[in-house]
């Protein structure tokens, strides 16, 4: 499936007409985003079939991170490559599932990064999963593609988004001028605009973290969560709610939809790794979305978007969402 398909016309029209800080979206970027959206539409259909088409379970392979790949991890990765490689505007792509970037035939200078299937542990239990993507511009369009072309801070992203495959298939997208959401109409195969100007409230009473790792956390994170748990009468004097889906894409979708914060902080299980989540495929695109919705995103010491990557598969400690809570976490880390 390529950008030349005749469906998804709403999304195409949106990209043709929307203004980003007073400018039209470059046609090359439109072409790439339509190809990503078309592919995610196909993926959504596959995900919905699950066991009926033999998609559940392990692929029997490992990825570059040393993680066991599920069949859907591999299928999603292949579908995305197939779906975008014909884009003339694309210079290359990189995926969480592949050690090295792939140069494509395009003559353009866009770089696409993606986590093809986020939340892999949820595939077999029919819980929301998703695709996360980030678009950069190659600094030297004429030079042959190298891994270092991708090593740009999150501030260089020209677009980012995710598609969550849940009860509905919903895409969140930023082009650097706010955040919008589209929901897939499965009957007409259209991503339909459902929300403009997505905003994350600055204050919240909801946090999201894998509590089973509590004994491994650093002191500032432990203090923050302890204070949330103390409820009315404690340091914060308010009762907090906790949610944890274990698919970043679904947890961040909740944050963008009704506020809150999401954390996957560094912990002592792997003291020499800076965190679990991947900077280029997960943290940067999600941080771009969250900042564009009025929230904040930090590794504790620095805003995620300011980090200069040194490795394509670099990992990072992530805390993102409602601004007041993220600022509090930053103070605790100072
Ligand atoms: P994945 O990209 O291999 O699916 O891993 C990332 C996922 C995130 O979506 C989620 O927040 C986290 O890993 C869940 O980790 P845990 O299994 O520790 O709860
Ligand atoms: Mg992931």
From TrEMBL:
GO BP term, pick one: fructose 1,6-bisphosphate metabolic process
Family: Belongs to the FBPase class 1 family.
Catalytic reactions on record: beta-D-fructose 1,6-bisphosphate + H2O = beta-D-fructose 6-phosphate + phosphate
Binding site for substrate: 118-121, 210, 276
Compartments in which it is found: Cytoplasm
Major subcellular site: cytoplasm
Pathway assigned in UniProt: Carbohydrate biosynthesis
Listed InterPro entries: FBPase_C_dom (IPR044015), FBPase_class-1 (IPR000146), FBPase_N (IPR033391), FBPtase (IPR028343)
NCBIfam families in the record: PRK09293.1-3, PRK09293.1-4
Keywords: Carbohydrate metabolism, Cytoplasm, Hydrolase, Magnesium, Metal-binding
Gene Ontology cellular component annotations, sorted alphabetically: cytosol
Binding site residues for Mg(2+) 2: 115, 118, 282
EC top class named in words: hydrolase
Cross-referenced CDD domains: FBPase (cd00354)
Quaternary structure and partners: Homotetramer.
Cofactor note: Binds 2 magnesium ions per subunit.
PANTHER family hit by this protein: FRUCTOSE-1,6-BISPHOSPHATASE-RELATED, SEDOHEPTULOSE-1,7-BISPHOSPHATASE, CHLOROPLASTIC
UniProt-recorded name of the protein: Fructose-1,6-bisphosphatase class 1
């Amino acid at each position: 499936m390529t950008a030349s398909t005749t469906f998804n016309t709403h999304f195409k029209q949106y990209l043709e007409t929307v203004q980003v800080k007073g400018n039209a979206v470059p046609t090359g970027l439109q072409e790439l985003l339509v190809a990503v959206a078309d592919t995610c539409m196909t993926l959504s259909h596959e995900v919905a079939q699950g066991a009926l088409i033999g998609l559940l379970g392990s692929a029997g392979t490992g990825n570059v991170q040393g993680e066991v790949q599920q069949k859907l991890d591999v299928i999603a990765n292949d579908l995305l490559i197939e779906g975008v490689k014909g884009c003339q505007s694309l210079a290359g792509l990189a995926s969480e599932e592949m050690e090295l970037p792939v140069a494509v035939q395009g003559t353009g200078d866009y770089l696409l990064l993606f986590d093809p299937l986020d939340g892999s542990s949820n595939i077999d239990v029919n819980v929301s999963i998703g695709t996360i993507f980030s678009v950069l511009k190659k600094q030297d369009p004429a030079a042959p593609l190298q891994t270092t072309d991708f090593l740009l801070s999150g501030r260089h992203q020209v677009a980012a988004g995710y598609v969550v495959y849940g009860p509905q298939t919903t895409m969140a997208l930023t082009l650097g001028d706010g955040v919008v959401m589209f929901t897939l109409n499965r009957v007409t195969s259209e991503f339909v605009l459902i929300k403009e100007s997505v905003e994350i409230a600055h204050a919240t009473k909801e946090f999201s973290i894998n509590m089973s790792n509590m004994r491994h956390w650093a002191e500032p994170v432990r203090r923050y969560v302890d204070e949330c748990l103390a409820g009315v009468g404690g340091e914060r004097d308010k009762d907090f709610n906790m949610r944890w889906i274990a698919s970043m894409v679904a947890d961040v979708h909740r944050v963008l939809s009704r506020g809150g914060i999401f954390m996957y902080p560094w912990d002592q299980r792997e003291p020499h790794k800076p965190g679990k989540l991947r900077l280029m495929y997960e943290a940067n695109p999600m941080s771009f979305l969250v900042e564009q919705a009025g929230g904040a995103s930090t590794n504790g010491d620095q805003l995620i978007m300011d980090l200069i990557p040194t490795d394509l598969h670099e990992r990072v400690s992530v805390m993102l969402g409602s601004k007041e809570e993220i600022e509090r976490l930053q103070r605790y880390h100072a």
